[in-house]
Amino acid sequence: xxxxQEMEINMGPQHPSTHGVLRLKLRLDGxxxxxxxxxxxxxxxxxxxxxxxxxxxxGQVWTDRLDYCSAISNNLxxxxxxxKLFGITVPRRAQYLRTMLNELNRLNSxxxxxxxHAMDIGALTVFLYCFRDREKILDIFEAFCGSRLTTTAMxxxxxxEDVPEGFDKMVKDALHAVRxxxxxxxxxxxxxxxxxxxxxxxxxxxxxxxxxxxxxxxxLRAAGIAYDIRKAHPYAAYGEMQFDVPTRPEADxxxxxxxxxxxxxxxxxxxxxxxxxxxxxxxxxxxxxVLKSEVGExxxxxxxxxxxxxxxxxxxxxxxxxxxxxxRAPGFFNAQAIPLMVQDSLVADVIAxxxxxxIVLGEIDR
Amino acid sequence: xxxxxxxxxxPNRKINLPKTAPVPSPGAHxxxxxxxxxxxxxxxxxxxxxxxxxxxxxISEGKEPPKPPVRHAVxxxxxxxxxxxxxxxxxxxxxxxxxxxxGAVEECFEQAGELVCQVKKEAILDALTICNQDVAxxxxxLADMTATHYPGGWxxxxxxxxxxxxxxxxxxxxxRILILEGFEPESATQVYPGANWLEREIYDMLGVRFxxxxxxxxxxxxxxxxxxxxRKDYPAVxxxxxxxxxxxxxxxxxxxxxxxxxxxxxxxxxxxxxx
Lengths: 366, 275
What we know:
With 366 residues, chain A is an alpha+beta fold. Chain A is built from 15 helices and 8 strands. Chain A is globular.
């Protein structure tokens, strides 16, 4: 006679579809997940402690290493948090360029997400298409700040220097590539029967649970709530931009796929507006060489590709570095909801769940 | 394995504990401004007195008297920088909170467009419940929660902040409590389930435990980790757990090499006791 019993297995930390070093303790009944316990911290580098011992100017380099697929969003969040703390006004041209870079970065991050998510599920072609288009965006970053991944693109008070010659053309080429690329991805996936079977109704998380667990970004919008920090608390030049906040009511993996693709279209729209209305002027505010703080406390939320990234800073009188620095990483909250999403689902759907969360362990473990 | 931290043996692990406790509030800011003005005034008076002495000396020696000093006005517009000053609470949400919580509210103010409400540490669960449930408030989401260590604080050692978000009205609020070492605040998981990992992180990083938390274990560091890294009395280079090879020989005694390495790093490894 065969014996039936529940089995406990470890998924990760060295599993390619966990996108890093996430470990899930799973208890399985056959193929069904009965219990899931995420274990994180394998990539903990103590970035908060390091930044508390570095000057305000130096901290930004470490924010690149949080979510390494969207370094510019982190740079922007950090720079704006320090600017809010010190009450620095940034010139308008710098605001526009920041907005443009941030949206290019959103395209980059979403392309990486789509590529890896589709690859996890088994559609390898999409991976190659996405990385082909992402290359053009990375070239723009390289032309602007010299590096492709860890950009350190912003400075406190603006930008280090203006855009290089031929920047407009590069951006327009990249936008054209993304625009045509989006049609190709949709042709490959949107009505693909395997893709539909693997994503529709998988990893559902309704709006109430999203709010209870602090889940933001495309995850929340795919649950039917049109909340976008770019609209709710406008920062940089988002107040002057025209764009829509896409939502879907289904709250499953397929809905998140549609929301993210639509977000990419809106990003293209925003970048075009930035290029058109780019004002002239300086790109750096007049600020002292060394920032000496007063007693203050600030929390600045911005909309990263994965959700709300918030920087919390506490400063002391006459301090050159933050007294306390904390990152509210969107991935940390998303990872916390994995047990809810995979309960009573199949093991193969756990892979789809991790993919749809768009997980990057660099920001979860910090 | 346990060790005792000895900063004398390893100067790079020396800690300079901060003496101030920077908790912003309108009162503290006003006192600060007053102190700065008093210091400036005292400096000016000293300049005047010095001038008088110099002048008297010059006259007595028959020389030309020095020019009188000029008091420069403070240059305000040298930079695009204006430090945000905490102001008294204006927002209806803060008034509503004061109304509902009554004496439990210690302080309400706004700074840089952010609403801050400091409540008594015993009343934090009530405050969170009201923020979540009250019809006029309805802060649905706990956006962030963290703590700060103040070894030099007077009457408190930690501040814990809760950042709440109201999605419908697009508002944000910061609740703050100040606690002493050893006090266990009520866990927010009963109101906001998402606080689970955040509280575990605070415990892991700062050593503040929460009462009635379902799973009060470390989250980022391993269970055997000693100390809480984000406390101010924890050296930035670490206590050295990773620097030394802690292999034991067959009898369970740490090797001589390990002990030497530990000595260089200022860590006194206690010899293991035979059981």
